[in-house]
Amino acid sequence: MDGELLRGESDPAIVLNPRGKSQIVLVCEHAGRVFPRLLGNLGLSNTDLARHFVWDIGAEPVARKLSSILDAPLVLQRYSRLVYDCNRPPESPDAMPAMGEATPIPGNEGLSAQQRLVRIESIYRPFHAAVSAVLDARAAERKPAILATIHSFTPVFKGNRRNLHLGILHDRDARFADRMLSVLGRTTDIVVKRNEPYGPKDGVCHTLNLHAGVRGLLNVMIEIRNDLIEAEKGQTEWAERLEDTLQEAAHGETMRAAS
User: Fold this and answer.
1) What is the pLDDT at residue 259?
2) Does 2 reside within a domain?
3) Which of 167, 170, 194, 215 could disulfide-link to 177, CB 3.0 to 4.6 Å?
4) Contact assessment for residue 226 and residue 57, using Cβ atoms and an 8 Å cutoff
């Protein structure tokens, strides 16, 4: 693995509807579960390949449905986060994790500096260049942008049950998350929590900070419990629920900025 990792294979980024009219710009860093041919399956069994640590179960179809009903740009990451987790910077140990929850990832053990660099250059940089290109194009046209990343989480993690349906995450800039939480606070049928089941202390806000932070854009990370969006019915229901919430939150921020 001393040269190109993806020679003859597809780009890591899938860009849909880049000129969408919505203020919302969607990103899904853990959409894919493809492995580059040179890496095989990183030594994982077929059973492990169906587990959540390979990709965010249900996140891509929800993001695609949201993109369609919002008329929003969407950038998806094609390859498994085990190859490179594009929501982590290159210096993070979790960028190319040696463990998936409690399961060793043989193909990620003992990576050399050159092997890590190849993945950074093949997966991480092109993916984030695609996100930047979408946001830069909107800036050039003086179109507003609110960055929202779509993720999912497991109901149980390392034996601990997570008692929520939806997490609304943010780092230092809580403006849009606050607005979403205010809208969602009127719901009574789901449990919504701020910065759960992860938060900035876990290093999960990299994409938000990298793209929205430096541009001063409103931003939010959305985490949906994956058993709610494994099937198409749940994916559609949650896309519609989030569409309403995002629209109202975006409208609220627009009205506040204009006042």
Assistant:
1) 35
2) no
3) 170
4) yes
3-state secondary structure of 241: helix
* pLDDT in the model for residue 254: 52
pLDDT reported for residue 159: 78
Task: Judge whether 8 lies within some domain.
Answer: no
Rounded to a whole number of angstroms, the CA Rg of the chain reads 18
Tokens of 196: 């759960």
pLDDT digits (tens, 9 = 90+) for 29-75: 999 999 999 999 999 999 999 999 999 999 999 999 999 999 999 99
What pairs with residue 248 in β-bridges? Answer: none
Q: For residues 185 and 196, what is the distance between their CA atoms, to the nearest angstrom?
A: 15
- 244 within some domain: yes
Distances in Å between the Cα of 136 and the Cα atoms of 66, 73, 144, 179 are 21, 13, 11, 25
Parent domain of 144: 13-258
Q: DSSP states of 80-142 as a string?
A: -TTT--TTS-TT-GGGS-SEETTEE-GGGTT--HHHHHHHIIIIIHHHHHHHHHHHHHHHHTT
